[in-house]
Design brief:
Number of strands: 7
Largest sheet: 3 strands, antiparallel
Number of domains: 3
Distance between the termini: 62 Å
Strand order of the largest sheet: 1-2-3
Structural class: alpha+beta
Shape: elongated
Length: 305
């Protein structure tokens, strides 16, 4: 769809019922298109009950159509198919332009409302960042944890987060008698395959903090984009650029929701009941012993051994 020049001051007519059309002072229910050339479409509608097209020699019942204005200022309603009788390809052009204007007005309303809400959005980001267990606390927690956590365990946490792999498995070597019993029950099973028993002993919680950055959610995706939008003149944006801003504006609340979920995930991850599973993420016995000694201070977002 090509960009068109749009008058930002031009307002389309909102139509909720056929009475809204009849009440227009310039409305005529019988327009001769040979005498009155249609200038543009200024509103659209979809009714449950059918209405008659306002074009003379047409009057086809329809549910969906447009309010049109003529070059001499009269108005009438046209069915979405009936308009082809009026001017064929030109009607298709008019419909396309109308849809672009309608889209522009809906978009500009949303984007202007978002800009007007900038102070409130910024205050919300600040509150989430500076609260007791907020974004700054989360970032400090991850940074300090990365500094003291054995690297193999930290890498395993990142790997598990990317794959949503939560099961913590304890492998135990079976005794000779246990293996013999299993072999008797499964004669074709190789002995090596029966050597270890694996058991799920729990589920890791809060791994989302190793996959998603709360800084990206609040600052990069919300604050920075809001500043960028505030510096733009919406009426001069290309359709593609405007649509990207609209898509972003519709995601703002989702970013805030995701940020709150990350904060909750961080509290769950650093709970002592969750940290007890960390030794099982490495085969290095020294690192197992080290991480078992970890004492984490939730309020200070630091830990020590």
């Amino acid at each position: 769809m090509n960009d068109i020049r749009i008058d930002p001051n031009f307002e389309l007519v909102t139509i909720n019922s056929f009475d809204d059309i009849r009440k227009c002072p310039a409305y005529r229910e019988d327009i001769d298109i040979k005498q009155h050339k249609i200038s543009k479409l200024i509103g659209d509608y979809t009714f449950k009950e059918q209405v008659h097209c306002g074009l003379k020699n047409c009057h086809t019942p329809h549910n969906t159509g447009f309010l049109a204005v003529t070059e001499d200022g009269l108005e009438t309603n046209i069915g979405h198919v009936c308009g082809n009788k009026w001017s064929g390809d030109n009607f298709a052009i008019q419909k396309r332009q109308f849809k672009q204007i309608k889209e522009y007005q809906q978009h500009s309303q949303l984007l202007n409302a978002t800009i007007a809400n900038k102070t409130s959005i910024s205050a919300r980001i600040k509150e989430i960042s500076e609260r007791k267990y907020g974004a700054k606390w989360l970032q400090n927690s991850i940074s300090n944890f990365r500094d003291i956590c054995p690297s193999d365990i930290y890498k395993e946490l990142i790997r598990r987060a990317s794959r949503n792999e939560l099961n913590v498995i304890l492998a135990r070597e079976r005794t000779s008698d246990e293996i013999a019993t299993l072999q008797a029950m499964n004669p074709n099973a190789p002995r090596d395959s029966l050597r270890y028993e694996e058991k799920v002993i729990g589920l890791l919680s809060g791994l989302e903090i190793f996959k998603t950055s709360i800084h990206d959610l609040l600052i990069v995706q919300v604050a920075n984009k809001l500043t960028e939008l505030s510096q733009k003149q919406i009426s001069l944006l290309k359709i593609s650029e405007r649509r990207k801003f609209v898509e972003w504006a519709n995601q703002i609340e989702n970013h805030f929701t995701e940020a709150e979920e990350l904060l909750a995930s961080c509290l769950r991850f650093f709970h002592e009941d969750n940290l007890k599973y960390l030794p099982h993420l490495t085969k290095d016995t020294n690192n197992q012993l080290q991480i078992r000694r970890l004492k984490w201070n939730l309020d200070k977002s630091t830990g020590n051994y």
